[in-house]
Design brief:
The protein has ten helices and ten strands. By secondary structure, it is of the alpha/beta class. The structure holds NADPH dihydro-nicotinamide-adenine-dinucleotide phosphate.
Length: about 280
């Protein structure tokens, strides 16, 4: 039986699974099979984006799965070059058509791209999609506190989620604290630091104690922080491994040890650099 994945509650009482599959850099021709393995393993949340050019594969796997639509949680994102009110509405229609769905659960602004000066207009488009029932929840990704506050000030609506780079080498305690204050859920992208932390001695020591893999320890650390995680894997065994984190716990001492690994170092771009 599929494990029961814990959920977080977004605005409007929308439940989002705390663990999902990320499909960045999964080639289109492999995406349906990868998502099929994830759904079979018990994942019900999938994170894609128009940038990834694999929304069609996500949609194919969903269509073939026979899983009732309301049991699934599908996230996609509007890309930087599609920002602006009308452009975003058009980009959303293309995403919906690729996904072969009639609504998405969560639609995100992929980057603030402040140099374009369009993220408030883009946010207005997301709000109108939500009002029309085409998306259940709206949020952002890679937003700094100043960008979050501008959306809230200008449109009066707080994003449900901010999806940001977050892993033991980049723990973002201040940003996370600011999310809590504003009522925003934190979602971690590259939660495994793209696989670069598996040899870390602190992670390995905790893994040995709990008799789990380093990836499972890192993902469990995220769960206990309360963040949503979307690890990417194309490997069926690792897809299952990454979901199998519900039957053990990290002690406070393990959490403290992992806290010491923060270096403020990124595996991806800084939000102010992306236009
Ligand atoms: P992750 O931190 O999820 O790491 C993925 C890498 O780790 C892959 O190389 C994968 O290899 C490997 N891996 C996965 N599971 C294991 C395991 N159990 N043991 C060992 N290695 C493992 O990086 P991503 O950058 O892919 O981030 C995850 C998701 O976050 C993306 O797919 C995307 O959905 C989202 N994202 C969003 C961004 C944004 O700007 N909003 C930016 C970047 C990512 P293998 O496939 O071979 O298992």
């Amino acid at each position: 039986m599929a494990p029961s994945v814990p959920t977080v509650t977004l605005h409007d009482d929308i439940a989002m699974p705390q663990i999902g599959l990320g499909v960045y850099q999964v080639p289109l021709e492999e995406t349906a099979e990868t998502v099929h393995h994830a759904l079979e393993a018990g994942y019900r949340s999938i994170d894609t984006a128009s940038l990834y050019r694999n929304e069609r594969g996500v949609g194919d796997a969903i269509a073939a799965s026979g899983i009732p639509r309301e049991e699934l949680f599908v996230t996609t994102k509007v890309w930087n070059t599609d920002q602006g009110y009308d452009q975003t509405l058009a980009a959303f229609e293309r995403s919906l058509s690729e996904l072969q769905l009639d609504y998405v659960d969560l639609y995100l602004i992929h980057w603030p791209a402040p140099a374009r000066g369009l993220y408030v207009d883009t946010w207005r488009a997301l709000l109108s999609l939500k009002a029309a029932g085409s998306v259940r929840a709206v949020g952002v990704s890679n937003f700094l506190p100043e960008h979050l506050d501008r959306l809230i000030e200008e449109e009066g609506v707080v994003p449900a989620i901010n999806q940001v780079e977050l892993h033991p080498r980049l723990q973002q305690p201040e940003l996370r604290g600011g999310h809590v204050e504003r009522g925003i859920v934190t979602e971690a992208w590259s939660p495994l630091a793209k696989g670069g932390l598996m040899d870390d001695p602190v992670i390995q020591k905790v893994a040995a104690r709990v008799e789990r893999t380093p990836a499972q320890v890192i993902l469990r650390w995220h769960l206990q922080l309360g963040t949503v995680v979307i690890p990417k894997s194309s490997n069926p065994a690792r897809i299952r491994e990454n979901l199998d984190i519900l039957s053990f716990e990290l002690r406070e001492a393990d959490m403290d040890a992992i806290r010491t690994l923060d270096r403020g170092s990124r595996v991806g771009a800084h939000p102010s650099e992306v236009a």
